[in-house]
Amino acid sequence: MKIVDIRATTVAVPLEAPLRHSNGAHWGRFVRTLVEVETDEGFVGLGEMGGGGESAEAAFRALLPYLKGHDPFQLEALRFKIANPTASLYNNRTQLLAAIEFACLDVIGQRLGVPVCDLLGGRVRDEVPFASYLFFRYAAEGHPEIRTPDQLVGHARGLREAHGFTVHKLKGGVFPPDHELECYRALAEEFPGDRLRYDPNAVLSLAEGLRFGRAIENLNNDYLEDPVWGLEGLRAVREQVRVPLATNTVVVNFEQLASNVLRRAADVVLLDTTFWGGIRPCVKAAGVCETFQLGIAVHSSGELGVQLATMLHLGAVLPNLTYAADAHYHQLRDDVIEGGPLPYEGGAIAVPTAPGLGVRLDKDKVARYAELYRELGGYPYDRDPGRPGWYARVPNERFADPTVSQEVTL
Ligand SMILES: [Mg+2]
To answer: DSSP letters of 131-145?
Structure first.
């Protein structure tokens, strides 16, 4: 079988509301590039990539000369053809490779008539549990602002009732640590039997990271995720705080994983099918983590249904996945896959059973949201629409003011 064409389509899919994070915000929509890899046997495999609010169409189109004629079954060769470790110093193709790998696995699964998880060792679970992934949000049509502890708890209660979440992740790094601590404690108080995790995207100073970590030691924590920047920073927090530490920022490749094994800084590694260059490298990394008794979880860098399917197939095959996965998915108003958004039941999403990734594009939805992208364009993921001129520093000292209710026009 041979690849004959690669198509890339940028879509903008509306979020319920703008999501605030330490570097800025998702401005009320996700911009994602959908990839279709077509083969001479008529199979079309699907991939997806983010890109910080920007289109990656041109980058995928530029790969066609490299991949035309390539057999999608040859996945190891694919890695060296477009992202070998030294050539990639110049062109950073890891995330592009990931999307092409998803599509090739989708093609292989369709050709063999098996779901992708069966190509990765076979499923050990039929559904993947997810955390609620709570964001501070600006108000948007039909959705009030989320800024105060009461607003956050109300939002979490609604998500818990709608989707069954029993693990809650607070994305922080937006407001001063004391305010976010108050919010985190309010969640713990509201849901005493549930588990919690906090992730300020590494923007706390070491002193604040230590202070925050110590302050939550008595709560029902899964882990404290990237409280400060860097393996050395995490190691310094880990020495003095009795909460497991997790990272999705500084263990995102095998070199860094080796460092973390040799001198442990993070207890839990969040595997991201895009950041690591595909589903298969995540499975390999999970094996290393299993050997060295590091925890693993599934990271979300924002996803529509295609990327979500990669996370589900990954989660399905990892015996050592003892933490709920993260997903932004329930923050979306819609999806581009046939049948509409995959549903949560009891806080989990079923692993697709159809051949390949098990999801297909809804052509009408793709057309509609490609048009929305043309209308609205990209957005600066690392800027905050409510704070013109502001940009993030690490560690951050210039947090948003939690006492001020603010409206943004996008
Ligand atoms: Mg994180």
So the answer is: ---EEEE--BTTB--
Residue 70 a catalytic site member:
no
365: number of Cβ within 10 Å = 19
Distance 247 CA to ligand 1 centre (A): 6
Distance 199 CA to ligand 1 centre (A): 6
Q: How many CB atoms lie within 10 A of CB 159?
A: 19
> What's the CA-to-centroid distance between 335 and ligand 1, angstroms?
23
Active-site annotation holds for 363 = no
Q: Among residues 299, 313, 328, 365, which one is catalytic?
A: 299
- Walk me through the domains of the chain, giving residue ranges and CATH numbers: 3-118+363-375 (3.30.390.10), 121-350 (3.20.20.120)
Per-residue HEC secondary structure of 85-132 comes to: CCCHHHHCCHHHHHHHHHHHHHHHHHHHCCEHHHHCCCCCCCEEEECC
- In 236-326 the beta strands, taken as DSSP E runs, fall at 245-247, 268-271, 295-298
Distance 60 CA to ligand 1 centre (A): 26
User: What is the structure's pLDDT at 78?
Assistant: 98
Token readout for 404 is: 């001020």
CA of 112 to the centre of ligand 1 (A): 36
What is the Cα–Cα distance from 161 to 188, expressed in whole angstroms? Answer: 16
Q: Is 398 exposed, middle or buried (0-12, 13-18, 19+ CB in 10 A)?
A: exposed
pTM summary value: 0.98
Of the CA atoms within 13 Å of residue 359, those in its CB half-sphere come to 31
| Catalytic-role residue among 168, 171, 179, 313 | 171
> Which residue numbers in the chain have pLDDT < 50?
none
Tens of pLDDT, residues 103-162: 999 999 999 999 999 999 999 999 999 999 999 999 999 999 999 999 999 999 999 999
